[in-house]
Design a protein that fits this description.
By secondary structure, this protein is an all-alpha fold. The protein has one domain. The chain is 74% helix and 0% strand. The chain contains 22 helices and no strands. The chain is globular and about 75 Å long. The two termini are 44 Å apart.
Length: 452
């Protein structure tokens, strides 16, 4: 009993040490792995047991065929960033919504949805949208809070709308179908996009000085017919989206095979746009390797941390803390969502996914929500709720990466306080979307056909 209590406190100390280490600025991948090794020795864990960490890393991460999809999706997103597709589509969408109050902001939100389904890379999406849209919005007299908010929020849609790297990792962690996760995430992702557009329409009506109408005669340099231009600029992304998502949802290709199709398709699209060069290809490959290595090192560190944490009884501690609240199934679900939301202020989605999900998923899986869902359907629904929740982690200070990307783009012309204020309504919209998906599970489960 005394040994169990001692391990119980060691597990708690692991969590506290992790949170404290985050604020030191030390690389999270090494922090997770280092804490796992340190607490293994402090807790007196036998050395032979540590061999299971290596086997978990090789068997569960390095040899996981699904993980190959990550660098392929990263490459696809980065290649599309340099293809010029987004720039042309933004100009065409501006022509479509030019006479609508807040039309340029709406164009940015729609472009965010389209590019999210084409790239799925948060950094690339936010930087791309910021470089394309922010100078134009500032020239047209948009309020900085409106401009920064819609760019940051629209750029984060790529983490939810498939093909999403996060959903690929969640499928591996929870041992559920990535294809079903992609299907389940599609409608919630479009719902968030619709909430953004509705908000922009309302705020443009209430505060017209925040979103003045542009002088189309001065900004429209494309003389081609509007519908022809829209079809031309949407064709490439739509074909790529259909090739990747369609092949997965139809069961023709696995996520890894579809990612390869997307990577090849992005190169072909860049060739057709005549925007590819050896220098562009070299930079794309280097950035793909850098991003993929970062993700892989975090996964390896998180695996080391979680194996030791569970050996010290951390999973029982978490289960006892959650079930000991006396809350019902929905109360426990809201408690977990609140915990993940708070952790999103300090941790990246990768750490939360690999450290928190394996601990709370077994608890959620056995809860009876009165919906007649199978345990597999509950896990898929839960994964989508977590994915929506983790979108806020990119927007919430102090470690909201979308805010840092946007701050870098502004080159000091817009204060960090303005950027922080700009994301408040969009975080509230994301929470609204999360609440809708909690109380109306069909939003996520209808498309994959998991409803009873």
């Amino acid at each position: 009993m005394a040994e169990f209590i001692s391990e119980y406190y060691l597990a708690m100390l692991m969590v506290v040490s992790l949170l404290a280490g985050i604020f030191t600025g030390y690389p999270v991948a090494f922090l997770l792995g280092g804490l796992g090794i340190i607490f293994a020795f402090i807790g007196g864990i036998p050395v032979p047991f540590l061999a299971t960490v290596g086997s978990r890393i090789y068997g569960g991460v390095v040899e996981n065929w699904l993980m190959i999809a990550i660098p392929l999706f990263v490459f696809m997103g980065l290649m599309l960033e340099s293809s010029g597709v987004a720039r042309r589509l933004l100009l065409t969408l501006q022509r479509v919504f030019g006479r609508t109050p807040g039309g340029l902001a709406i164009s940015v939100a729609i472009l965010g949805v389209v590019m999210a389904a084409s790239t799925g890379i948060i950094g690339a999406s936010v930087v791309m949208l910021g470089l394309l849209a922010l100078p134009v919005m500032m020239r047209q007299g948009y309020h900085p809070e409106m401009a920064c908010g819609v760019i940051a929020a629209s750029g984060t849609l790529g983490i939810l709308i498939p093909p999403s790297i996060m959903l690929v990792l969640m499928g591996s962690i929870l041992q559920v179908s990535v294809g079903d996760l992609f299907k389940a995430a599609l409608i919630p992702g479009l719902l968030l996009g619709a909430l953004y557009v509705a908000y922009l329409l309302i705020i443009a009506r209430i505060k017209p000085h925040w979103a003045p109408l542009p002088d189309l005669d001065a900004t429209d340099t494309d003389t081609s017919p509007l519908m022809l231009a829209l079809a031309r600029d949407l064709f490439g992304p739509c074909v790529l989206i259909f090739a990747v998502l369609g092949s997965i949802m139809a069961g023709i290709a696995t996520p890894t095979e579809a990612a390869a199709i997307g990577a090849l398709g992005s190169v072909i699209l860049a060739l057709l746009m005549r925007s590819i060069s050896w220098n562009t290809l070299s930079k794309t490959v280097q950035e793909t390797a850098r991003t993929s290595a970062m993700i892989l090192f975090v996964v390896i560190g998180a695996t080391s941390f979680s194996v030791v944490f569970k050996r010290l009884g951390g999973d029982y501690m978490i289960e006892a803390l959650i079930t000991g609240t006396g809350l019902g199934p929905y109360g426990l679900l809201l408690l977990i969502m609140g915990l993940i939301f708070v952790l999103g202020f300090f941790l990246e989605w990768i750490e939360i996914s690999f450290v928190v999900l394996p601990l709370v998923a077994p608890v959620v899986e056995i809860l009876d929500f009165g919906l007649g869902l199978s345990s597999q359907a509950i896990l898929i629904w839960f994964a989508i709720l977590v994915a929506i929740n983790l979108q806020t982690s990119f927007l919430t200070p102090p470690f909201g990466y979308a805010l840092f990307y946007l701050k870098g783009i502004t080159e000091g012309k817009i204060g960090i306080g303005t950027i922080y204020r700009s994301i408040i309504p969009f975080v509230l919209l994301q929470i609204t979307g999360l609440a809708l998906c909690i109380f109306f599970p069909a939003i996520a489960l209808w498309l994959p056909g998991l409803l009873p």
